[in-house]
Each structure stands twice: as structure tokens, then as C-alpha cells.
Design a protein that fits this description.
Chain lengths: 114, 116
Amino acid sequence: NAGVTQTPKFRVLKTGQSMTLLCAQDMNHEYMYWYRQDPGMGLRLIHYSVGEGTTAKGEVPDGYNVSRLKKQNFLLGLESAAPSQTSVYFCASNKGRSINQPQHFGDGTRLSIL
Amino acid sequence: AQKVTQAQTEISVVEKEDVTLDCVYETRDTTYYLFWYKQPPSGELVFLIRRNSFDEQNEISGRYSWNFQKSTSSFNFTITASQVVDSAVYFCALRRDPGGTYKYIFGTGTRLKVLA
């Protein structure tokens, strides 16, 4: 029962470096989301996808790019990391269009930008 | 505007006390869902409950109960006889889908500390 798997779990980057966070789900879910969690801010939506090959901007998309080339994977990229992107990143997925579906979350990626 | 407000940033209680976590939401939609999630110190997010906008029945699950009141746009969560293991951050969330937005809106969370 893997569910939603995020890799890596921890990462430290220097300002200006790039990296990609991987989210994989094995539940055949259509919808996938990337959030960042900062103290006192709750969960803020970065980007989301409603199906393979589609992506859309969320609340705080600047400085991030995403891709959904395969249904099971949703990648979050930082092209030029900035200290303001230090955060805990969560990936989530849910099935279908019915709005009663709860989101299933990964365990998070703790990212520090120095 | 669509918004979820959890005004209580942090609550501390002594074990066995009852505690209520408040959630107030704003939406113009007639159809929506509300959720509660728990984030224990280990960091993962755990789904607790969902409630649709047409069902105002209160729900009880063991020591947990939820009170949904459409008239006050509130979906409050009560833990009875709290335990140390209940210590976590609790998030309330709203989901609505007009125009296919498929987004969830989370509150800022309430950190609950249950002291032994």
C-alpha cells in the first residue's frame, strides 16, 4: 500500500541551484496537487493537475514549474532556488471529479535553501 | 471569496479535558464539501472526516465529534477526553468545484497540545 510517495524526503540546496521533486501515486488517481506548508500559513496550493498532460496554477505558482507526463507522476521543479522557497512540500492526489473525495497526501519533502 | 478560517492558532489542554477546534468557512456555492485533516508531529497528513453541504447531521466517531452548522458557516471539531496522542496540527478544508476548479482551500491550522 504505497499510496502517494514523495522523493526526496529532505534536501538542502544553495541559492540558484535547480532541482525536481517527484510525486508518484499508485491509486490511479486523476487529480494531483503540490502544496507548500509554511509556519502560520497552512497549506498553499502551488500547482495542480486534473489529468495526464494537464497542469494549472494554484495560489502561489511563481518560481515553480510542473509536469504530468504520466498519470501516476507529478513533478515539481525549482529552476533557480531562492531562500523564500524553503518550506515543506506536500504532494496530494484524489480520484475522480466527485467533490466528496478526500485528498491522499505524501509524507512531505523538507527543502532548505541556503 | 472562498476562505477557511481557523482562528485558534494553538490550544493547550490537560489530558482528559474536552477541546473544540473551530472552523469557519466562506463560500457562495450551494454544493461543497468540508474536511478535517490531522498532522501529527511525524508530519504526515491524515484524513479524518468529510461532510457535504446538504448534510447537517452531527457525526461522532469514538472520542471525535463534528458539528456542522450551515447557518453560521461553521464545522467545528470536538475531542472528548483528550489524550497525549491527540497532540497534532489540525486542518479544516473546503472543496468546491464550480467551473471545474477542483481545488481544496485549507485553513491555517490549529496546533493542539495535550499535556499529561
